Amino acid sequence: MRSKGRGRTAALFAGIGALCLVLLWIDAQWPGLVTSGGAAPESPFEEATGSAAVVPPLVQLLKLVVAAIIGMVVTAVHRRYPSDKPLTRSLAQAQILLCVAGSLMMIIIGGSLARAFGVVGAASIIRFRTPVEDPKDTTILFLLLGLGMACGLGAFGVAGLAAAMLCLLLAILSYLVERKPRMLTLELVAEGAEFPTAYVHRLLAAYQIKFEPREVEKDEDESTAKYHVTLLDPDTPLQALSDQLMDEQAGALKAVTWKIPKKVQKG
After folding, report:
1. CB 67, CB 100: distance < 8 Å
2. Which of 5, 9, 55, 173 sees the fewest Cβ atoms within 10 Å?
């Protein structure tokens, strides 16, 4: 189980390295992706005009695509090394979209001061009423905005190196700072009156999970059990564990639910 996780992590960082090399190569081949003020085109993507080089829409689309890819990569690493609380789906999507938004803002602004004030004024109208509680998540959002801006400027080399450094720092910080065990409530539903207690306890112990039975209800049709569990390893793969708990040949469980206790949510 751990070998699979390490293999996925190695593949993820190998992909990050490959992406960084590709962006550096693009930056070295066509350094004029940043819109310049000269009359001659600085890259094969630009068209010469009387006053300045005009960047075609396809190049602007490339900047947005690169920003989206960088946002996905950083989010994948952040999900692999989350904060004290698991990375929610909405926050993961917000990270990717914020990176794209930073790129789009720089494309729209270009070198116009009036456009910059217009974008700031439009952004001030939007009210974000959902605060980000974790300082680490807030910092990553801010860094992703900067990465998106670098993509919008066409500085792919800077964006690639900064994204690789950010992913590496997330991995290093997860090992330098000790993470707290996760406390969850586990609800299991089995068919019939017989609950596979021995199989469930053996599987939880195999994953090094401390558990304490709280409620057990038995009926003719189904039986339900609730556990208070503590994940000593915060990176315990809950999806893989749930699949094993619902193995028809072993335990005949038909429902597995993981919940965060209310006291932990408030804290």
Report:
1. yes
2. 173
- Are the C-beta atoms of residues 147 and 74 closer than 8 Å to each other? yes
What is the C-alpha separation between 221 and 92, in angstroms, rounded?
40
Tokens of 154: 């066409």
- CA dist 72 and 172 (Å) reads 19
Confidence at residue 55, expressed as pLDDT on a 0 to 100 scale: 61
pLDDT digits (tens, 9 = 90+) for 66-77: 999 999 999 999
End-to-end CA gap in the chain? 31
- Residue 58 CA to residue 72 CA, distance in Å, equals 21
Q: How far apart are CA 161 and CA 167, in angstroms?
A: 10
More confident residue, 265 or 38: 265
Work out the angle between the directed axes of helices 135-153 and 156-176 (0-180°, nearest 10): 160
Q: Which domains does the chain possess?
A: 2-176 (no CATH), 182-266 (3.30.70.260)
pTM above 0.70, yes or no: no
Query: What would the two tokens of residue 233 be?
Result: 């390893």
**What does the DSSP 8-state code read for residue 234?**
T
pLDDT in tens, 175-184: 777 667 778 8
> Given this model, what pLDDT does residue 129 score?
61
Q: What is the sign of the dihedral through the CA atoms of 197, 200, 204 and 206?
A: positive
Distance CA 14, CA 159 (A): 17
R_g of the chain computed on alpha carbons: 25
Q: Which residue in the block uniquely carries the two structure tokens 């993470």?
A: 179
Q: Which of 145, 138, 132 is nearest to 104 (CA)?
A: 145
Per the listing, tokens 């689309």 go with 61
Taking every pair of Cα atoms in the chain, the longest distance, rounded to a whole number of angstroms, is 84
Tokens of 173: 């910080």
